[in-house]
Design a protein that fits this description.
- With 315 residues, the chain is of the alpha/beta class.
- It is built from eleven helices and 13 strands.
- The protein folds into two domains: 125 residues, Nucleotidyltransferase, domain 5 (2-Layer Sandwich), CATH 3.30.420.40; 172 residues, Nucleotidyltransferase, domain 5 (2-Layer Sandwich), CATH 3.30.420.
- The strands form three sheets. A five-stranded mixed beta sheet has the order 3-2-1-4-8. The chain has a five-stranded mixed beta sheet with strand order 11-10-9-12-13, sandwiched between helices.
Length: 315
């Protein structure tokens, strides 16, 4: 059975491991990214992570897959990686292919997760799958007939920066009314803080120990589970915004399945129910009938498994 190295590069930690073609992790370890020390240090940390993963394999592996934040071009160069200073026009593929004399595939991290969910997770067996991650922002990827959908030259499918309200608030990307501006972590928290300052009846403030800085989406979901109406309103609105957003994608792509992961989506059936209901009401009838909306299936190890999956994508 073929083995691959999977590297999930984050702003704080590098998750590394050895996986096989069935998506099983044979070993894994976390390494600090040390991004504040500059890109040369980060590259050295990635090398340490790869070295660990290769130990005991005699380099008999199919290759190395790296999922990285930022825009990735067809050569494996990385651009615009906000949490990794100095990562502009960085030939990440060439660096590690030359060092290890193994095939290396570099891809945007959320595109990578989309492929992992298609091969080994909730989207397994589908013909066309949309994958979205909900967290600090909104990331996404599309897999069609076994391959990640990319642009002419760069990684594409920046789902978080699709406009759902042309008169909406400005997003950090510079556009206005992006879906990320309505359902990103800080904007969900912003709604709870606003409700508290308006003296609305809610237990969110007490759950946060009366400290607004302690409010998180997880805490809002906890308040909802206890019957809090403000929390319910917030989560319903998040689901409605996402439902309207996914309605457009259903009408464009006619996917078989929409897979949603990330911290915001965890333990949030109210959000999933609202997305499904909204798609059913708003999307073209026949297209809405054929799509499933489900939680991601790979859990906390998705980054390693998905990075390894880059070596198994169909050409």
């Amino acid at each position: 059975m073929e083995k691959v190295v999977g590297i999930d590069l984050g702003g704080t930690f590098i998750e590394a491991g050895l996986t096989n073609e069935e998506g099983q992790i044979l070993k894994k370890k976390s390494f600090p990214t040390l991004a504040h020390q500059g890109r040369d240090v980060v590259i050295e940390q990635i090398s340490k992570a790869i070295d660990f993963s290769l130990q005991g394999t005699n380099n008999i592996v199919k290759g190395i897959g790296i999922g990285t934040p930022g825009v990735v071009d067809n050569r494996g160069y990385v651009f615009d990686s906000p949490n990794l200073p100095g990562w502009e026009n960085l030939p990440l593929k060439d660096i590690f292919q030359e060092k290890y004399s193994l095939p290396v595939v570099v891809e945007n991290d959320v595109n990578t997760i989309a492929l992992g969910e298609f091969l080994f997770g909730a989207g397994k067996g589908s013909n066309i799958m949309i994958c979205a991650t909900l967290g600090t922002g909104v990331g996404g990827g599309i897999v069609y007939k076994g391959k990640i959908v990319r642009g002419k030259k760069y990684s594409a499918v920046e789902l978080g920066h699709i406009t759902i309200d042309h008169n909406g608030p400005q997003c950090k990307c510079g556009n206005y009314g992006c879906i990320e501006r309505f359902v990103g972590k800080e904007y969900i928290i912003e709604r709870a803080v606003k409700a508290i300052k308006e003296k609305k009846e809610t237990i969110i403030y007490s759950l946060a120990d009366k400290n607004l800085e302690n409010i998180t989406p997880k805490l809002i979901k906890e308040a909802f589970a206890k019957g809090d109406k403000v929390a319910e309103e917030i989560l319903l609105d998040v689901g409605l915004c996402l439902g309207a957003f996914f309605t457009s994608l259903v009408n464009i792509f006619n996917p078989e399945i929409i897979v949603i992961g990330g911290g915001i989506a965890q333990d949030a059936e109210i959000i999933f129910e609202t997305i499904r209901d909204t798609i059913k009401k708003r999307a073209m009838k026949k297209l809405a009938e054929n799509v499933k909306v489900v939680p991601a299936g790979l859990g906390s190890e998705t980054g390693i498994i998905s990075a390894g999956a880059l070596l198994f994508q169909k050409v």
